[in-house]
Amino acid sequence: MALTVLHRKLFRDLWRIRAQALAISAVVALGVMVQVMMAGLTDTLTVTRDAYFERHRLAQVFEPLTRAPSSMMEQVNAIPGVLAAEGRISGFGRIDADGGEPVQARILSLPGAAGLNGILMTAGRKPIAGRSDEVVLLDTFAAARGIALGDTLGVTVEGRHQKLQVVGFARAPEFLFMPAPGEFFPTDGRFAVIWMERKAAAAVLDLDGAFNEVLALTTRERPRKAVLADLDRLMAPYGGGAGFVQDQQTSARFIEEELKGLRQSRVFLPPIFLAVAAFLLNVTITRIVQAERREIGLMKAFGHSGAEIAGHYLEMALMIAFAGALLGSALGVMLGRSITGLYMEFYKFPYLVFSMHPGPFAGGLAFSLIAAALGAAIALRTVFRLTPAEAMRPPAPPDFTHGRVGFLAIVTSFFDQPGRMILRQITRQPVRSLGTVAGVAAGLALNMAMLMIYSGFDHTMDVTFGFADRSDATVSFIHPVSRDVTHEIAHLPGVLEAEPTRYVPVLFRNGVITHRGELTGLSEDAQLNRALRPDLEPIALPAQGVVISRGLADVLKLQPGENLTAEVTEGRKRTLSLPVAAISDTLLGAPAYMRLDSLTRAVGEADRITSVSIRTEGAPSPELLHELRERPKVAGVSIKSDSLAAFREIADEGAGQMRFVFGAIAFVLSFGIVYNAARNAFAERAHELASLRVLGFTRGEVTLILAGEITLLVACALPVGIWFGWTLAKLIARVFSNELYRVSVSFDLPSIATAVLVVVSATLASILMLRRALDRLNMISALKARD
Question: How far apart are CA 634 and CA 291, in angstroms?
Fold first, then answer.
């Protein structure tokens, strides 16, 4: 099929403006890339999570308790809405690593006939019935510790030490995200899970003929929370009543928070790029239409309608957008696949293949074409208004006499001739100038906001591990122990200071709002673990009342002076009404602090603690770790330097790579805007620039005039972008913060400098390319009059 005249002209025009077309396509590609990447990651995580949970039958209702006879499972299965239920044996032990710190381990019975909370065997086999010394070990822990099949583990459970042989490795959906107790982020070698044959687990944990946790799947006909309420009532006499649904399970909750962040990102990021692309296309098409008035008149004279000619220019815009959408789709898939590897490593999925449905591709293409059509449509109104006779005449010179008197005349009087030319060009086209400023500011703001968010990780580390937690290690116990243990640990070799802590699991309540968490009891003069004000000064814990974190206050909608209800879920299960004395600036978790003596009286127990924070001479010594391993009540030792290293690894591998991604995005966005503005200015003023060369201006002076306009617009965009970036950073931090962690942002000068440097680099690259075009300018062709 032969090409029409307009199509041949279309391809010639695209080749002529190929550099600008590529820059605009790159901006479109960024928007589609983010859309495809975020949508793909959302789909991948959602589909993989749902399939993994369903295939291994992750419980939808969890009910921990103290001890219940196995015969109670008949009544559990009779609860309306229960599809399948299983009584599990669960407890904690300690793995004694030779020469290292004790490691806390979760001990579980293998899934029963109902198959709830199933495991995925990755190597070896399950224990043989009757072999009480055979276990299956969490594979990520085994890999981190160099444990092989057939190795023997020294494990202490309920004060008894025994040898267990590893016969298999496994992983489970229950432990996708698994920080060690007392820590916030997972470290493979810091927490273990051991699965045992049921009789062996019962013998080890003294639960023969009983269970201490109920797992249940529910039907769709009855809400999970209604089933949970019945289960709480049934198990209350056996230490139950503190059950929770799947959404509150640690792994499920963290993954859902990640999905929430991805969904929000795909909503607010792509429109920024597509709006910029629409603006650039509008400016470019407007300039081309103005430059081709004579051609438009000739085409109309030869019988082409205004709609046909407008369609020609619209096709140009759509082809540019279409190319950008295709490129963005490919880049989105590539980047999504690379990030999928990070998710698989962080969340311990057994598989995670980047996949997505056609919807995001079609949506990205459709929105790109719509943005291009809108940007071009505004510029194409001139095509319909032009008559052939009017189009054949050169346009009347614009009248700039109005407004020459006043502020602008006063300002320009202080500049030389090139400076006045630069200012006149900017003020003669205020809408275009403002659009360029807004676009550059948007690129700067996006990069700056994300850099500030990532620098907030460093601030979080400094506050959490340098000001709030000033200990070197934390010793946790399998069960609450006497406070006198603090004095014993304080006299161990290398210990300079020791402070007790008590954690009491509770259900916080404020009206209809609830949150499952812990009351943290600290000593009155605590120095190693502290609640902090925003200025990082410690908050003195009151004799009565509670100090809650900002995250918990936001979740429960509480302010100082109001009362917080805390329903204790262990021991005597009292309901406490606690006045909120202050709000602390805690960034990780959602703690609620009380004085240890006040907490002890409130729960009606003896003076007992669950952990001891210690400060040591340097790193904890092998002698100290050996002494702690000899104490059967010690569940594990968390060394702060290990927690800090895990946090830094997450920040460097995940957020660290995304810093470069957003830096590249900001560079492309800024370059696309600046370069298009420079090329349009060059095309419109080629005649004027050639005239200046004839009048004796050097190439440097002519370059200064053209580059000065771009530089001045970028300079105006910098303060606007910094303000917008700071506002955007605070908005992102507010949106992405939750009860698990708070995103911290500060007016970080290095982040601002980096973002500004990216914009300046893009501007310099544009000016260098513009200088190359000026060097190749044919003055004879440029000086020819069109009339």
Answer: 82
* Phi, psi (degrees; rounded to nearest 5) at 537: -85, 145
- Cα 116 from Cα 110, distance rounded (Å): 10
SS3 443: helix
> What separation in angstroms does the CA of 86 have from each of 83, 110, 210, 232?
11, 11, 12, 15
Give 86's strand partners: 215
Q: How far apart are CA 289 and CA 501, in angstroms?
A: 74
What CA–CA distance (Å, rounded) separates 669 from 176?
A: 37
Is 150 in contact with 181 (CB distance < 8 Å)?
A: no
- Single-letter amino acid, residue 300: K
List residues bridging with 217 in a β-sheet.
Answer: 84
- Which residues are CB-neighbours of 695 under 8 A, at least 6 positions away? none
In the structure encoding, which two tokens stand for residue 405, read together? 């008197």
Q: Distance between CA atoms of 601 and 606, rounded to whole angstroms?
A: 8
**Secondary structure string (H, E, C) spanning 766-783:** HHHHHHHHHHCCCHHHHH
pLDDT at position 172 is 92
Residues near 326 by beta carbon (within 8 Å), at least 6 away in sequence: none
DSSP state of 409: H
Start-end of H helices in 685-739: 686-694, 699-736
Task: Return d(Cα 587, Cα 742) in angstroms, integer.
Answer: 5
**Residue in the block written with tokens 């004879």:** 780
SS3 414: coil
474 forms beta bridges with: 613, 638
Q: How does pLDDT run across 523-577, given as a tens digit for each residue?
A: 888 888 888 887 778 888 888 889 988 888 888 888 888 898 988 887 778 888 8
